[in-house]
Amino acid sequence: MTQRLLVAAAALILAVILLGFAVGAGWTQAFDLRISNGLVLHVGETSPAFIAFMQGASWIGGGTPRWIIVILLCGLVWHWCGPRCAIALGGASLLSNLASSLLKLGFGRARPDLIEHLDHQTSFSYPSGHATSAAVVYLLLAWLAPPRWRRAAWSLAGAMIVLNGFSRIMLGVHWASDILGGTMLGAAFALLGAWWVSLRPRQESTSG
Fold first, then answer.
1. Which residue, among 179, 48, 176, 185, has the nearest Cα to 118 in the 3D structure?
2. Within 60-128, where are the H helices?
3. Domain residue extents for the chain
4. 159-182 mean pLDDT
5. How many CA atoms lie within 13 A of 188 on its CB side?
6. pTM of the model
């Protein structure tokens, strides 16, 4: 099992890099434009309340709010299965954020310019840091959840990943391929965190 986690993580990281080269070569342009034309260009017809909701979803997925959530969830998984789990979640979050920042610099993809950005951004576009964070945090949280909470945790992970990605595209700050790359990168680090935890049997949670 532990070897499979490492192989899957390595395969995802390789896929992120290959997708980055495909993005740089322009191979994803038609796909990206098709998705963005269906979402971004209709923002003017969308209710202000829904736009505010998308901005809120994006806000909690980045910057200070993201790290506050990570710290709180580290405390939760510590309660579930001990300090090793908390270190895995916090470490995977930090390392994936660093990897995302380095890949952004390496690929240097410009942000979309279809509309005026509805969220202030200063970094490059590929891969999405928000998507990376959502994937690593919530997928690893679901992996570490005790059995009684696991179904709810996986549902939360799916909802947060989709909502986060949708909001970033709709706000005009990312292409769909940025979201895909970020999600794969976050999933890779979630697998690495799960691998590290699996090196020692998880403690039994007294809370069940």
1. 48
2. 63-81, 83-107
3. 2-198
4. 94
5. 22
6. 0.91
The whole-chain average pLDDT of the chain stands at 90
pLDDT of residue 143: 96
Residue 41: count of CB within 10 angstroms of its CB: 13
Chain position carrying tokens 């909690």 = 60
Q: H or E stretch including 18? A: helix 2-24
Looking at the predicted structure, is the pLDDT value of residue 205 above 50?
no
CA dihedral 58, 62, 68, 70 (to 10 degrees): 100
What's the gap between Cα 88 and its chain centre? 16
The mean pLDDT value for 184-204 works out to 85
Using DSSP, how many helices (H) and how many strands (E) does the chain show?
A: 8, 0
Q: What would the two tokens of residue 161 be?
A: 């990943």
Question: Long-range CB contacts (< 8 A, 24+ apart) of 53-58?
Answer: 54/118, 54/166, 54/167, 54/170, 54/171, 55/118, 55/119, 55/167, 55/171, 57/163, 57/164, 57/167, 58/119, 58/130, 58/164, 58/167, 58/168, 58/171, 58/173
pLDDT at 43: 64
Q: Which helix (H) or strand (E) holds 136?
A: helix 129-144
Residue 118 — pLDDT band, cuts 50, 70, 90? Answer: low
